[in-house]
Amino acid sequence: MQMIEKFLFNRKVKKRKRLNRSLGGDIALFILLALFGIFSAYPLIMTASNAFKPLDELFVFPPTLLPRNITFDNFRDLSELIGNSWIPFSRYFFNTIFVTVAGTAGHVLIASMCAYPLAKYKFPGSKIIFMLVVYSLMFAPQVTATPNYIIVSWIGLIDTPFAIILPAIASSLGLYLMKQFMEQIPFELIESAKIDGASEYRIFFQIVMPLVKPAWLTLIILLFQRLWTTDGGAFIFSEELKPLSFALRQIAQGSIERAGTVAAVSFIMMIVPVTFFIFSQSRIVETFSHSGLK
Questions:
Q1: pLDDT in tens, 30-47
Q2: pTM: predicted TM-score of the whole model, two decimal places
Q3: Domain of residue 52, residue span
Q4: Up-side HSE of residue 92: CA atoms within 13 Å toward CB?
Q5: How many Å is the Cα radius of gyration of the chain?
Q6: What is the model's pLDDT at position 158?
Q7: Considering the domain boundaries, does residue 16 fall inside one?
Q8: Are residues 167 and 286 in the same domain?
Q9: Nearest to residue 182, comparing CAs of 118, 250, 254, 251?
Q10: Which GO terms describe its biological process (predicted)?
Q11: Which of 36, 71, 106 is a domain's end point?
Q12: CA atoms within 13 A of residue 86's CA, in its CB half-sphere
């Protein structure tokens, strides 16, 4: 246990180290980062601003960054359209929450449990398995869409929430991140825990998982953003099983008079994952820097 406490202390000391820069270098770096930050934040600010603009301001050219006359009519129109839907809005919301929570929790648990033996134990075929995992990251989602549909259809999960949850759980990105992070844990910690009589499950949940907390928090953020905006695609056809993003996009489709409603929908779909990311961005940066993922 003393070795575990020493390892945790060394990790905290490393986090406190800073780069030694001059005051001029800090100011120049701050200005450069501020310019990039403003450039990156402009689309987000414009999306939020459009949600509160009246219809006539949405078609002004050149577009204005901030609304001249703030209005909530776009959200009122969206509320009326939702109220007229024959499927309760709460049903769409429940579908999204169920898919997001089940897919995220399942992926974090399965990826972590698979990464642990790959990172800390050597067994026949371990290098080949990890090599296949790395190669799978090279394929775009459009390439794997057809095989995913064939597998899900063969299992019989079409038109069920598990048609979205199962591919999310089987994603190889989480396995790669967790394996790269777990490799940094000294094997002496695991050996000392075994000497103290701890089982493999206790070592995994009480020693390994707390040490790789930034990695699985990053997985939660990435999967949450991905599953929150999913619309079911070609997997779900029943209206009562559709997620929230599908319902909002269907409501927003229509004539040019619904441009304000479209802006309100875009703002609602953006605000949740962006807020989630803002409060957790340090964990994502730390995980990517340790795993070597570009």
A1: 888 888 877 877 788 888
A2: 0.69
A3: 22-71
A4: 23
A5: 24
A6: 87
A7: no
A8: yes
A9: 118
A10: transmembrane transport
A11: 71
A12: 2
